Amino acid sequence: MSTLTEELDQQLASKQESEKKDLKQLLSDSQYVRVPKAGEVVKGRVISVSPREVKIDIEGLTIGVARGEGLYKEAKEFSQLKLGDEVEATILELENENGEMELSFREAGARRAWDRALAAMRESKLITAKVTDANKGGLLLKVDSLIGFMPVSQLKPDNYPRVMGGDKSKILESLRHFIGQELPVKVIDVSEKDNKLIVSEKAVWEDEKQGLLSGYQVADIVEGTISALTNFGAFIKFGEVEGLIHISEIAWQRIDHPKDILQVGDKIKAQIIQIDGPKIFLSIKRLLDDPWKSVGEKYQIGQVVPGRVLKVNPFGLFVELDPAIHGLAHISALSNEPVTDISLIAKPGDTLDFEIISLEPAEHRLGLQIAGLKKPKVEAKEMIIETQKSEI
After folding, report:
1. Per-residue pLDDT tens over the stretch 92-119
2. What CATH number does the domain containing 154 carry?
3. Which residues pair with 54 in a beta bridge?
4. 107 with 66: CB under 8 angstroms?
């Protein structure tokens, strides 16, 4: 009896081995089917579902299995599978220890997520992403099953961290407030190969603002409230729109910072000077008379006038003749002898007598020298240009 059982077992094993060989031969015979490779995505129908594995009929040719503890965790779209569902999976091995094709939903899920991200970019589609973390450069967001990045520059204006002086630690502190929030964004750059997914909140805002800005045009005068100050300018909010007044458009005279003249909450009038897509730029000073148009009525070359030193830099002094007219005194125009330390000659707040040595109203430039000096060796115009370059 034992011998008969052993013979039957041997016959069954021989038959199974023969069937495996026949299947391998079928898969390797290009006359019948193209041989799949590890890493490729295949389609099939679900024939079995359990908490630890899902078995799939691969086009009637072989049985595939996706398994492991991370079976559903990494690819939630597969968590509701039922018998008969058509699915895609990535081949890990053509044949495992049980003679089945070893598959992965996670690999296929990630690949499909990249495909969806690429399609979203091409279609300029609005999607929702959840902020998971922040660094000094921007925000990390969960996009589908992928991790995307949004640079600080891609935040919409209302969310942009307007930190005085650009302190990076304060910028990071401001960005961390977004962790856990869901933001509407658009994909602006995607590369599965480089594992790069860049999204933008500003792109969504730009689309929304296009319609609002259609009611405005260059030269319009608007009234609004100063909403923020930065070292490069002031933001003004009027209606549902926010625009920028660059520091050079706040006043006719030179200022070091917008806070020298403006405060958050100030109500002001400004003129629209440029509309660039969703961006709008304005000017306060263009609503004021240009004091340089009549500067020749008050100041002439050779005239000696009192001036208050506003700022000292390595190239010379910035001097206030009156609240509207400022001039420049180059280092070579401060003494008849070579100057090694300007602070020994003047400091901010000092009032000295200066002689006007050049006057160019159209360029808003006025050159000075300490009164009583010999004519400087450097031309006045060159001195002014050099001093201005030092401020750039």
Report:
1. 888 888 888 888 787 777 778 888 899 9
2. 2.40.50.140
3. 49, 66
4. no
